[in-house]
Amino acid sequence: MNRSALLRLGTAVAMFSLLLLSLAYWWLENVAHEIFGSALFLLLAWHFSMNRFWFANLFRGRYNARRVVVSAFHLLLAINMLVLLVTSMIVSKSLFAFLPFPDSVPLRDLHWFSAYWLMVAVGIHLGVHWSRVMTMTRTALGIAPRQARGVWVLRVATLAGCGLGLWGLPALDLWTKLTFNFSLNFWNFNQSVVPFFVYWTAAVVVPATVTHYGITALRTLPRASQTSWQPSPTKSRQTRDAVVRRREIPALTAEDVHHEGS
Questions:
Q1: Cα–chain center distance at 45
Q2: CA triplet 46, 50, 52: central angle to 5 degrees?
Q3: How confident is the model at residue 241 (pLDDT cuts 50, 70, 90)?
Q4: What's the confidence (pLDDT) of residue 162?
Q5: If you write DSSP's letter for every residue of 103-160 in order, what string do you get?
Q6: Is 61 helix (H, G, I), strand (E, B) or coil?
């Protein structure tokens, strides 16, 4: 196993696990919520330091449509994380209660609102870097690329995750929470715990899958438009010229043949 790839993959899994645990506020209560959240931001700071060259190269090179969209999304993601960090320190009741900030209900609502949107953003972030994540996973686990069985297993798992995510949206009442509306649908951890984490994980798979296959489809559009009119590269120049000349000569009708014969 590649230790570097395994470290990066383990860090990503740890950050996502801490994010899920932070959402289980009504199960773990406030102290655990703040501990897991603080650990998440520490790992996130390390993640930013490992990818600091992306920020350094932000104003270098040429921008196409894909780079504009991806860069804008990551900047919005960073702003969302900053909002989540600042609001968490302001509304803290345990670890940062010593800070001279008064309790604020609107900031508490903003904290939850940014946390729910962060789950969607994590899915989009995963979809944007899907190929890199898969390569890192194969490298970390020592799996050979292009294994047909592994590809189909991954596709079936992704399809199952999307179906489960769509099925669990009403149970999480995610749309109400994403639209900054107050939801009375709180998860009852006295009845079940595991489905809460399963539904939230599947909810992240949905935007990840849509983003990945959406980007893949956009990449194939220019290639399809080019191959629809460009001549085949296997043909020689003389053959292509002959085809062009033949297209420029109008076809002879029966009347034209009669006139030529006379």
A1: 20
A2: 110
A3: low
A4: 86
A5: --HHHHHHHHHHHHHHHHHHHHHHHHTHHHHHHHHHHHHTPPTT-HHHHHHHHHHHHH
A6: coil
pLDDT at 95 over 90: yes
Q: At what angle are helices 25-50 and 65-90 packed, to 10 degrees? A: 130
pLDDT confidence bin for 88, thresholds 50/70/90: very high
Q: How many CB atoms lie within 10 A of CB 3?
A: 8
d(CA 147, CA 158): 17
Q: Residue written as tokens 């489809």?
A: 217
Q: Indicate the burial class of 20 (C-beta count within 10 angstroms; 0-12, 13-18, 19 or more).
A: middle
Between 241 and 217, residue with greater pLDDT: 217
- pLDDT band for 18, please (50, 70, 90 cuts): very high
